[in-house]
Amino acid sequence: MSSAAEQEAVAERATPDTVMNGASRKVPRPRVWPGASTPLGARFRVGPDGVAGTNFALWAGGAESVELCLFDEAGRETRARLTELTHEIWHGFVPGIMPGQRYGYRVHGRWDPWTGGRWNPAKLLLDPYARAVDGEFSLPPEVYGHVRDWPQQQVADTVRDERDSAPHVPKGVVVHDDDDWADDRRPKTPWADSVIYELHVRGFTRLHPGIPEELRGTYAGLAHPAAVEHLVKLGVTAVELLPVHQFAHEDHLLRRGLKNYWGYNSIGYFAPHAAYASAGTTGGQVGEFKRMVRALHAAGIEVILDVVYNHTAEAGELGPTLSLKGIDNRGYYRVQADARRYADYTGCGNTLHVVQPHVLRLITDSLRYWVTEMGVDGFRFDLAAALARSMHDVDMLSPFLAVIAQDPVLRRVKLIAEPWDVGSGGYQVGAFPPLWTEWNDRYRDAVRDFWRHALPDVREMGYRLSGSSDLYAWGGRRPYASVNFVTAHDGFTLRDLVSYDRKHNEANGEGNRDGTNDNRSWNGGAEGETADERVLALRRRQLRNLLTTLLLSTGVPMLVAGDELGRTQGGNNNAYCQDNEISWVDWALLEEPGWRALFDLTSRLIALRHRHPVLRRRAFFSGRAHSADGLRDLAWFTERGTEMTEGDWYAPAATLGMYLSGRDIPGRDERGALITDDSFLAVLHAGDRPVNFVLPGAPWAERYEVVVDTSREEQAEAPGVTHPAGMPVTVPGRAVLLLRVVG
Where is this region: Disordered (predicted)? Predict the structure, then answer.
């Protein structure tokens, strides 16, 4: 039925009553039919007798009643009570409500903070299942369920605020989309072949000269050929987007004239963040996001979302009432024995109570929605240990992990855990079950420490280079369970890692107290920017060392947008509130020869990784000989050219040789043939003076060809120099030499 016909049918079949609104004006009262309790949220459809309208369904377990609030273009509100209640879900079908309609809820119940009840119908609440959100949260006193400025702050959260919040909060938007994704082709890149690129939709596109100005900072900007071209040239297989769920800004930032730039403050788990859309905020953001996904898929690039299901933007008992807190506070959040207080395993004021079935349903419904209706290929779960908690402790048999493991949609997509939270026992690196990969911070710390020559020996480095079998070789897990990274959005950029010994977060307005002090960085002899060419040359070499190490390591490498260009944040290691040039990618760096050379090296290393399966193994190394000549799949060498003994692993050292055999790669290709490849020797030398490294002779090789030498500034092409086995080769101070076996 066409839209015009639908509206005509509604006019004939649905005659509204009238009601007085807050401005004492007679307005039509929507007629509410019983509707259905599923699916949750607002779903436009054709109802009884062919009447078009929208079904509204809201879980509000402890509520006494629920009002649906509809808003016209002028912001005038019309209310309709939902009278149907099925399994704690309030629902109704409203004829004539079309896509683009703005709405919210007022939920009635007992105000009793001492037992966790914080119902306050004066507060307009965002539908947790809203698929589009119109407007921004500004957080004046009216949006707080309690009297925020009560003189006795220790009891302020117990005093109910009766002011109407509707003029100050965003509204949900009814969206209709019957897209079946028939023209989309998901890349479905195997984990072992993946190279992840963490980026911020706004920050990656905001300054790109090839993107039209009106599209910069948006989903459409990321879909633009100029943005996609960079990703393709670089060779990454997936983008990991910093949060794109609708989020709100914290009050303490707004008071300082700042905003939450990273977005780890979600309030709408089904809605693409409206500020990143060029197509408007009344539903256009949904289609724009989908077109972005299609464009990336067409280029062979997967889309992974960084998702924040551990907490919401409502903070603690002194936070605003925006959605879940006013729907059923105790039903959605973990509270302490004193139910006024929240159990905070996230450091953000609250923690979602994932053990509750309806909370688990909210999360899994959201995940499935983004896969099936928005086209995404996987998720990185912020503070995933908080989701894996049962009643208190982290439990790898928790309901959340169990549901994911058996879900026919979610178990097939990429699942990445940030395997820690801030609660007791929250550090869980290596503990997540099969199906999951993890951010491996032990890889990050070891590589940083090695290249600043701060490791007591090379044992840790050996594990990290070869896939972290000490962490992941159990339960059928594979080397790609480890997402290897040196930098992430949180912390120094790669350039700042080699330019600053200390954080410089003054612009955040928190007295430089925010952000970690454990940076494991080294400035090379001068703090921050310098004109000393000796220091600059050392820093550029260290950048090449770090990138080369990352892309030669077994596991899944993750780069951060702009690191391949030498992006700097001026030493700010916590730029979560810097929506400006501090955080945005500076594309002008590509025009500078030194930084262009870094990009060229990075793309060449990624291409090398794609060509050689020995660099992206699907199984752990055995370290055993599989042939009569004694050649093993992995061997470690000292600078003397001898295999490392147990004592060598414990001795202080700055040099490590890693031999990767291409003859013994487990598994078969798609046609069942054995996989073979070239063999490589990687020599990593973190000392400041050159070392003569003796190249291993028979049975390892007869000759070696230099493929990468990070002591060289320019290496758009492989150096191509060969060296005989058994002879020493000079490795300059602080350099990586990658050699291919040629005989």
Answer: 1-32, 504-527
Selection from 448, 581, 580, 571 nearest residue 512 by Cα: 571
pLDDT of residue 672: 79
State the Cα–Cα distance between residues 198 and 488, nearest whole angstrom: 7
**Cis (ω within 30 of 0) for the bond into 699?**
yes
Q: How far apart are CA 295 and CA 221, in angstroms?
A: 11
527 close to 500: Cβ distance less than 8 angstroms: yes
Phi, psi of 287 (to 5 degrees): -65, -35
Contact 636, 666 (CB under 8 A): no
Give CA 309 to chain center in angstroms: 11
> Which of the following is catalytic: 157, 382, 664, 678?
382
Q: How many contiguous H segments (helices) and E segments (strands) does the chain have?
A: 17, 33
Is 382 in the active site? yes
- What does the DSSP assignment read for 603-615? HHHHHHHHH-GGG
What mean pLDDT is reported for the chain?
Answer: 93
**Residue 418 catalytic?**
yes
Buried b (16+ CB within 10 A) or exposed e, 178-195: eeeeeeeeebebebbebb
The type of residue at 683 is V
Q: Is 510:258 a contact under the CB 8 Å cutoff?
A: no
Please tell me the distance from the alpha carbon of residue 688 to that of residue 535, in angstroms, as a whole number.
Answer: 13
By DSSP bridging, strand 680-685 and strand 735-741 are: antiparallel
- What would the pLDDT profile of 497-549 be if each residue is shown by its tens digit? 999 999 999 999 999 999 999 999 999 999 999 999 999 999 999 999 999 99
Burial of 386 (0-12, 13-18, 19+ CB in 10 A): buried
d(C-alpha 170, C-alpha 68), whole Å: 15
Which tokens is 719 given?
């150096």
With contact defined as beta carbons under 8 Å apart, do 707 and 680 qualify?
Answer: yes
* The residue type at 446: A
| Region of 441 on the Ramachandran plot (φ > 0 left; ψ -120 to 50 alpha; else beta) | alpha
Q: Tell me the per-residue pLDDT of 641-697, one tens digit each, with 9 for 90 and over.
A: 999 999 999 999 999 999 999 987 887 878 878 888 999 999 999 999 999 999 999
What whole-number distance in Å separates Cα of residue 122 and Cα of residue 517?
Answer: 44
Catalytic residue among 161, 250, 314, 418: 418
- Laid out side by side, the sheet with 102-108 consists of 77-82, 65-71, 102-108, 171-173, 133-134
Residue indicated by tokens 């040196």 = 486
Q: What type of residue is 626? A: H
In this predicted structure, the answer to whether residue 16 has a pLDDT above a threshold of 50 is no
Can you read off the two tokens belonging to residue 737? 């030499």
**What are the E-state strand segments in 618-661?**
634-637, 655-660
The radius of gyration of the chain from alpha carbons, rounded to an integer in Å, stands at 28
pTM of the model: 0.95
